[in-house]
Amino acid sequence: MIKRWLLARRPFDSPFLTLGVVLLVLGNPFAKWVFSLFGLIGVNLGFARHRTWRYADPAFSWIIVCYVAWTAFLVVARDEPILDNRFLTYSGIILGFVFLPMSISLIRQPLDTLILGSRLAILAVLALIPFDPLLNDNRLGLGLNEAILAFLVAVAGLAARMEARRPEPYLPNSRLWTYVSLVPVLLTGTRAAWFVYVLVAVFDLLSLLPRWREVPPRLRWLALPAVAVALAVAIPAASLVENRWDAGLKEIQRLEETGVATGSVDVRAVMWAGSLAVIADNPVSGVGSTKRVAAVSAAVASGNAGYVGSFTHLHNMFLDEATSNGLVGLGLLLGIFGVFLFQVTRAAPGGRVVETSYAFVFLVVTFGSFHGVLLNEWMVLSTFSFMTLVLVSIRREAFRLRYSTRPPVRMAQRSR
């Protein structure tokens, strides 16, 4: 019965998941239903068809379970509220990705699904830019918080640069997808999302420069118009970056002069200093997710306490985690990304997967240093769907290579 149901689903799983990836980048609520459905199917298969567990990376799954268990233990031990606990809610979403590999076990090319969905999403965002009804203060949002949109598009830009095994003719494999995604990211005005593009450019230069002599002379001339286009885009982009950078410097200067935070950059500096004081007093288990902002507010100067207390998080994923769940929780959280990079590096798949995975973690770290990456359902879904689909594709490829070499051996044994 289960086998028939799985085979009946097989033709629809890949396009349905691709649709989910596209809608996720656009912030469409239907994306949550898509991933929820796959998660529920994964839970069902995990208990009803144990063989599907082989598609889940054991180390990655166990570190997630340990992190979620620590979070849940602290919530229960502190008798914190459950219904309105954001940390517990998002930890539950993260736990759902332990079961996602089972639900997509019949998708032959899960990485292609992520890549295709990301490329379509980038084109969709570009098409929607002129119609953004909430384009305030020259910042693109598409109905979402500008920082959230920047992160979603940046992740899509990284995923789109990986090489699909079977790319669509009109959506070819190319490194340029990342730079195309830079356009909407710049329009969001989110400074924390810009650093990863510098790293990607360095990766590409290191990869392409040694091959420059292999390029035919006729094609080398194409570099001139490419540079011209890049300069044409860089001039307005540089102006935008300079304006946002200067605004941040002015806030810091004003904070040094008055001691009072009034903007988005200076208040981060104030709350981060208060967070370090809270962590120093509660290093192991923190103070709890429902009390961390109040604790930080009490640790800063009275002139900034009210402004700091008006926020729901600390705009730093590491300090948010350490103040809520202590250094143990922070260590487990970092372990999730460490295990991901270790598994990808050990497998060393082609198609720019390794370098893109490192760029992805770099994005999470740099962006998370200024924003609560794991305190928003859109960014949680984007972060863990990327890692899960990459790891599932690696395991599927390993199984494919293993089983492709077994039949001749078995035939030889039988012939004896």
From TrEMBL:
Sample GO molecular function, one term: ligase activity
Pfam family, one: Wzy_C
Enzyme class label: transferase
Major localization class: membrane
Keyword terms: Glycosyltransferase, Ligase, Membrane, Transferase, Transmembrane, Transmembrane helix
Keyword Transmembrane helix: yes
InterPro entries: O-antigen_ligase-rel_domated, WaaL-like
Annotated GO CC locations: membrane
Nucleotide-binding keyword on record: no
Ranges that cross the membrane: 55-75, 87-107, 113-131, 143-162, 182-209, 221-241, 326-344, 356-372, 378-394
Subcellular localization: Membrane
Domain O-antigen ligase-related: 181-333
Enzyme nomenclature, EC number: 2.4.1.-
Membrane topology per record: Multi-pass membrane protein
Name of the protein in its database record: O-antigen ligase
Protein's organism: Aurantimonas endophytica
